[in-house]
Amino acid sequence: MGAVILSAATSVVLAIVLPIVAIIVGFAAGFAIYHFALKRKTDRSKQLASKMVEEAIVEAKKLRKDAVVEGKEEVKRERSAFENEKREHNAELQRSEQRLQQRESSLDKKESMLEKKEATLDAKLENVETLKN
């Protein structure tokens, strides 16, 4: 009978302890699985964030390079436009200068003609004066 009581007591203890141990082991396993899954998710998130940062850096470098190229092209266009405007302005100045030189030459010729006419008139007037006297 002593063995039966011991066996019954052991059965009762086992019936109480085994479920408690199973619950503790289940909680521990669940916690470990949850922690592992959380770590994996965190690692994936970090990898994704790292990849996104790398892609953003590459994109930023590309955008910067494109902006530099576009800026250089804009400077080139502006310089070309300025040079064209400068050439046109210089050509207009040369045309104006040429017109002024032609006008000056024309005025010089008119002045020379007027001086000759004046000299001729003076000579004629002198002739008339001489003939009068």
List the helices and strands and how they pair.
Elements: H1 2-132
Pfam families: RNase_Y_N
Domain Ribonuclease Y N-terminal: 15-129
Transmembrane segments: 12-37
In short:
By secondary structure, the protein is mostly helical. It has one helix at residues 2-132.
Q: Which H/E pattern describes the elements? A: H
Number of helices: 1
Overall pLDDT confidence: 92
Largest sheet: none
Task: Describe the protein in words.
By secondary structure, the protein is mainly α. It contains one helix and no strands. The mean pLDDT is 92.
Descriptors for this entry?
single chain; 133 residues; mainly alpha; 98% helix; rod-shaped; DUF3552 domain-containing protein; transmembrane; membrane; transmembrane helix
